Amino acid sequence: MSGKQIRMIDVTPKEETERIATAKGKISMKAETRGLILRGEVIKGDVLALSQVAGIMAAKETPHLIPLCHPVLLTNVTVDFDVPEGSNYIGITATAKGVGKTGFEMEALVAVAASALNIYDMCKGVDRGMVIEEIHLAGKSGGKSGVYLAEERE
After folding, report:
1. Count of alpha carbons within 13 Å of 79, Cβ hemisphere only?
2. Is the pTM of this model over 0.90?
3. Which of 10, 80, 121, 127 is catalytic?
4. Residue ranges of the domains in the chain?
5. What integer pLDDT is reported at residue 107 of this predicted model?
6. In the chain, which residues have pLDDT < 50?
7. Topology given in CATH for the domain delimited by 29-140
């Protein structure tokens, strides 16, 4: 260990700006599982609707999950799903938006993770081999560091 003290970053002197962060990820699964989800045949109910709610709720709870994450005032959180024809995965995109002294990257990332975990939870009875992968920051804007756009992933 380095012996350094753990500390929250002091954002007091920073200016409030409009900030937006978008994160992406995906959950891979069997084709049969994907079909059950799309046809609304999963025994626990509408997987994508509940996973969308799970992601939004999780974004709002981020500072309770990530120890040094500042509480921020979210003005909007969206969670969207992409299910490409013939694919073996569901893509997840979450965007967190607000005005503040610090960014919303963690809220967007947590929303993606929670959405994927909810999909796993609702479908584990039929597919325990699902894999949550590639959760990453896709882009952000606002603040001193300005705009960041991740390189395209395959």
Report:
1. 29
2. yes
3. 121
4. 29-140
5. 98
6. none
7. Alpha-Beta Plaits (3.30.70)
CA–CA dist 115, 138 (Å, integer):
16
Q: In Å, what is the CA distance from 122 to each residue of 41, 119, 142? A: 11, 5, 36
Residue in the block written with tokens 């965007």 = 95
CB 30 within 8 A of CB 112: no
**127 belongs to the catalytic site:** no
Q: What is the pLDDT of residue 75?
A: 97
If we measure between CA atoms, which residue out of 26, 117, 127 comes closest to residue 80? 26
Do 111 and 59 contact (CB within 8 A), yes or no? yes
Contact yes or no for 139/148 (Cβ under 8 A): yes
What is the length of the chain?
154
Query: Look-up: residue for tokens 């490409």?
Result: 84
